[in-house]
Give the backbone structure.
Amino acid sequence: MSLVIDMGWIATVWLVALRIGTIFLLTPLFALGGVPVRVRVLFVLALSLTLVTAIAPATTAVLNTPGGLFIAAISEVLIGGLLAFGVFTAFAAFQLAGRIMDTQLGFGVASLIDPSTRAPSPLLGTLLNFTALVVFFAINGHHMIIRGIAFSLERIPPGTPLPNIEPAALVAQFGSMFVYALMLAAPVVFVVLMVDIAMSVMARTMPQMNMFIVSLPLKIMVGLATLAISLHYLNPVMARIFETLFNYWHTLLE
């Protein structure tokens, strides 16, 4: 009995693992700090083995040479980075919306340590980001991510050169981050703006009152109440953000 090792198959699994690992490394989906690195690596390898076995993507002859394998590895990292860009900008919209609301409510002087990135994050931005993650997993968005990765392997098999990427798709996805961030923060920003206008009128009519001391807790109370009320109506916006993510993947891979 002889054991035959298919080096082409091993190279394919390694390249797919590079693509998937880049996606997970640059997005907040599986970047929780408490997950050991060994578990992440085993998960990426297991998912790569499953996808390669199920899809059996076509490979090229360049994988048989060290130089071709190195170029293919760079191409896979770039493809993974482009796919991760869509996921990153989608969730960055929630962070940016939280930053806008923090500035308006006076929370800009404080921050939390995001356990996923180990970096300071805005208070409301962290809250919205975790809410988006919970909703994303609740609607089986991680299944859509796996399907998208499988679709990318069918459209761009491992070892193929990096296709021509339209810059318009990247610019549109980057711009949508600001648009949807403003849509998420619009109710709180509008209500706080009305409070500021009312406080400015009161400052002119009652100059003896310290408006800073009065307006700060009032804006926090009104802003948080508005955010709590508007959370029920943010579902369509969150659905559009996630839809934009997968539309970007489809445009990129076409």
